[in-house]
Amino acid sequence: MSNNISSEIYKKFLWAGISLVFVLVIGTVGYWFVGRGQYSLLDCLYMTVITIATIGYGEIIDMSGNPAGRGFTIFIALFGIGTLTYILSNFTAFIVEGELNETFRRRKMEKIIKKFKDHYIVCGIEGVGFHIVSELYDTKRPHVIVDIDRKKIEKILETFQERVYIEGDATDSDTLLKAGIMEAKGLFAVSGDDNQNLVISLTAKQLNPNIRVVARCHDLKNIDKVKKAGADAVVSPTFIGGLRMASEMVRPTVVSFLDIMLRDKDKNLRVEEIPVPESFVGKAIADLQLKKYPNMLLLAVRTKDDWIFNPSDDYVIKPENALIFMATPQERQEMESIFSI
């Protein structure tokens, strides 16, 4: 996006700028000849500038009784004023259009966000935030990007076009309200600063106590502080990175399987979870007819106090159960739509 803006500026003003310099040079040299070398180049340049700028000061170079000089002044005035007017009008239009476009874009984003429900808010999009947006995009989950740095937003929009975003400080309540926090399902506090993530978590929970907050924390000693501020889960990239490297060494096949699952854009399989609504309590697993979904594999059922792995078809669903299964985003959406009936 920034490259497009630079290209637009280049196209609009390069030749106009060259024309203006050309007028100044021709005018300066021309007046020097008209004045027969009796005036300095600075006086000749000044005469050119006041002519094309229509300032209206008195003539520095005497043109009385000099038809050629006056004819040259008319030429410089017409050509120079036209060039200067073109530059000023385009510059004004560029500024106004940019502001209008930004205003329209901001209003468009706010209208889209007002229609969102159960979406996710990603606060901070550099590094970890980029990969979170990628995962939400791949699994077709609505989300809003929030960052105070315009350049970072433009960079992520180059990869994920037409993403919904809010440019602002995520620690500010007004910014989170614009991002639709009252209707959001979850919020990621993943800025590069632990203190900022703590404040974002605290602000989010104050606005919407029911929202789930997952925060990023670099320093392990700050994890408890971030949790006390309201984060439901805190993730340390360095800690997770260490576990991943250990797994690469001791269980490489498992890691390879998970990598393939995440990178396969055709099937796009993910391990998902869906809370079971009350309307399905008392039904057996067989009643869900999971076999009609070819890529869906039920892995476990989360109970109130325990886990049931690889549950049988005759297992009866109980209150507060959650299903843990592997499926494509499309199959997950179909299952969610069935559970929402």
SSE topology sketch:
Elements: H1 2-34, H2 41-52, H3 67-114, E1 120-123, H4 128-138, E2 143-147, H5 150-159, E3 165-167, H6 173-178, E4 186-189, H7 194-207, E5 212-216, H8 223-228, E6 233-235, H9 237-250, H10 252-263, E7 270-275, E8 297-302, E9 307-309, E10 322-327, H11 329-339
Parallel strand pairs: 1-2, 1-4, 2-3, 4-5, 5-6
Antiparallel strand pairs: 7-10, 8-9, 8-10
Helix pairs in contact: 1-2, 1-3, 9-10
Question: In a nutshell, what does this entry contain?
Answer:
The chain has 341 residues and is α/β, with parallel strands linked by helices.
Primary descriptors:
11 helices; 6-stranded parallel sheet; Rossmann fold; Helix Hairpins; 52% helix; 4-stranded antiparallel sheet; Alpha-Beta Plaits
Structure commentary:
There is one protein chain. The chain is an alpha/beta fold and 341 residues long. It folds into 3 domains: 2-110, Helix Hairpins (Orthogonal Bundle); 116-241, 3-Layer(aba) Sandwich (Rossmann fold), CATH 3.40.50; 269-339, 2-Layer Sandwich (Alpha-Beta Plaits), CATH 3.30.70. 52% of the residues lie in helices and 13% in strands. It is built from 11 helices and 10 strands. It has helices at 2-34, 41-52, 67-114, 128-138, 150-159, 173-178, 194-207, 223-228, 237-250, 252-263, 329-339; strands spanning 120-123, 143-147, 165-167, 186-189, 212-216, 233-235, 270-275, 297-302, 307-309, 322-327. A 6-stranded parallel beta sheet has the order 3-2-1-4-5-6, sandwiched between helices. A 4-stranded antiparallel beta sheet has the order 7-10-8-9. Strand 4 (186-189), helix 7 and strand 5 form a beta-alpha-beta unit. Helix 1 crosses helix 2 (41-52), helix 1 (2-34) packs antiparallel against helix 3 (67-114) and helix 9 (237-250) crosses helix 10. The model is unreliable at 1-6 (pLDDT under 50).
